[in-house]
Amino acid sequence: MAVERKLIREHKKRVAVREFLHRETERAGFGGAEISRTPMGTRIHLVTERPGFVIGRRGETIKKLTKSLNERFGLDNPQIEVAESENPSLNPQIMAQKLAEALERGWHFRRAGHSTLRRIMDAGAKGCLITIAGKLTGGRKRTEKFLDGHIKWCGDTALVFMDSGYATAKKKLGIIGCTVAIMRRDAKLPDEVEIHGGSLGTRTATAAVAATANATVATATPPAEAEVATATVDLSGDITDLEGIGPAKAKHLREADFNTLKDLDEASIDDLSEVEGIGPKLAVKIKDELKKLRSQ
Fold first, then answer.
1. Which CATH superfamily groups domain 3-85?
2. In this structure, which topology does domain 239-295 adopt according to CATH?
3. Which of 99, 134, 237, 283 could in theory staple to 272 by disulfide, Cβ–Cβ 3.0 to 4.6 A?
4. The CATH number of the domain covering residues in 89-183
């Protein structure tokens, strides 16, 4: 057999093995799999959110999985190593699956996208791009993107520093594809340079000037502004406490998974205006009332 044919066959087998592992360990939060050949056989490093679901009681589940890989794909002495994801919020495959599950539970696509984006960025990612494609609100297919931070779209930098994951949500209108691309927090981009050199006295003088400037800014801040910055507003009340929201409108908002004032505050005007019975004018009024609450 030619080398090219053998290479293609091996890659096809690896893709089939990854898809099989994804289906079998989806309940455990599949986060990726690395397959490598060793003198002792085939080593599979499996990353999951909940390793206990993969191992099973007394290792019964992982034994069945190993036997299935041997019989179905003909892998030579497969050895599965299960590891727990260090930070699931920075694993694109896990976050894509969680986004798909949220859409299947009935979350609005904008709320699910913004919530997933905030969770990833709060975990420390340098950048994130979320793409949701499919029949989102009507009979026509559309694509919505949610992005934040620094993103590389193409080139070697995107291949090296951007990790991506893909999952699908099965809805009545059809399949919705969810793609999550995350730039790792430890990524050092080519344009990030460190300048070495200079005398110790110069660096010390620069640090002293910066410290003096920071102290001046800190003392110049009025006490009232400092109190406002540290003050926190309780938004855990019910949505009916807000002016302009009656029982009928509150029912529609709860059906769209807006139960507290905090949920309304986190949503955008577009998210609120798409709820049945709300509309753009009332959505703007709701956001204005929330601003008044925060300013009190």
1. K homology (KH) domain (3.30.300.20)
2. DNA polymerase; domain 1 (1.10.150)
3. 283
4. 3.30.1140.32
Cβ contacts of residue 157 below 8 Å, gap of 6+?
Answer: 189, 190
pLDDT in tens, 24-65: 888 888 888 888 888 888 888 888 888 888 888 888 888 888
Q: 184, 105, 120: which is closest to 152 by C-alpha?
A: 184
Separation of alpha carbons 8 and 280, rounded Å? 54
77-116, pLDDT tens digit by residue?
Answer: 888 888 888 888 899 999 999 999 999 998 999 999 999 9
Phi, psi for 87 (deg, rounded to 5): -140, 95
pLDDT category at 236 given cuts 50, 70, 90 is low
Band (pLDDT 50/70/90 cuts) for residue 213 is: low
> What predicted TM-score, i.e. pTM, was given to this entire model?
0.61
Of the candidates 54, 51, 115, the one whose C-alpha atom is nearest the C-alpha of residue 83 is: 51
The C-alpha angle 244, 248, 252, rounded to 5 degrees, equals 100
Q: Please say whether the beta carbons of 39 and 46 come within 8 A.
A: no
Separation between Cα atoms, residue 290 and residue 79, nearest integer Å: 56
